[in-house]
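OP here, attaching both records as promised.
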Amino acid sequence: MKTPQFNLFEFTSRISNSKYRLGCVDCFSIILDYLSFRNIAIPDQFQGITRESYTILFLEDAIRAKELMVAFVDSLFRHRENVNLRMPGDILLTKLKTDSSSLSLAIESGNGMLICVSMELGVMIVSSQYYSILTCWIVE
């Protein structure tokens, strides 16, 4: 059995530098892929929305889509009380410190770094110093 850190490294290596594509490589899709990679069972739909219909919802109503995304992760995992004690592999709800409308999911990769997705740059490993961590979910 592989350790979570090795799995995270392997997963990160596989997706690093992937270009952004809504529904395939975006902040929610990489979380779903990460959970599949970790063999964590996820439902085929949540509140009547499938992975495919989520993309349509996002295009029609991004705010509602992001609320649903957060509720989905909330339904699967418990919160880490202190976001400053996050561990590699935790899922994070973040926003850029320079843009309060930039709500997105990321994965803690350790040493103050995050795995996240930007529409402009695709999948990136970036310093958490540029982000406010709003919520941290423990992935076990």
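Record two, same layout:
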Amino acid sequence: MKHIVLVCALGLFACAGAQTKSDQFMEVLARFHHHLLAGELDVALQFVAPSAQEAFLSIHDPARTVNRPEDFNVVTIDTASDRVLVVVTADVRKENSLTIRSVRLQQVWEHRDGRWLLIKEEIVPTR
């Protein structure tokens, strides 16, 4: 009887630890933006599909832009199976400036080979 209880307890524990794709995505999104804010561009780049890296770097690489991220806020998340559209407002500050302005980014994420990747990111007009 003790073995049955232990097996059942282990089974419940394993099920409780299983993440859905949605849970995984939210974790990846949070980690991605954390690394961007921390200035860890090389780590954030690991979340970006190879085909999207040039566009990503044109927005975030300190050698290419004078804008430095101060904060990110997720505005909307639209999910469609293995693809997610995310709209983010980024508060950016120009290098050596005290002025902060908001920029709206549109990100497209895709679940590929068991992991979430940013496949497109662009600056879009604010409303």
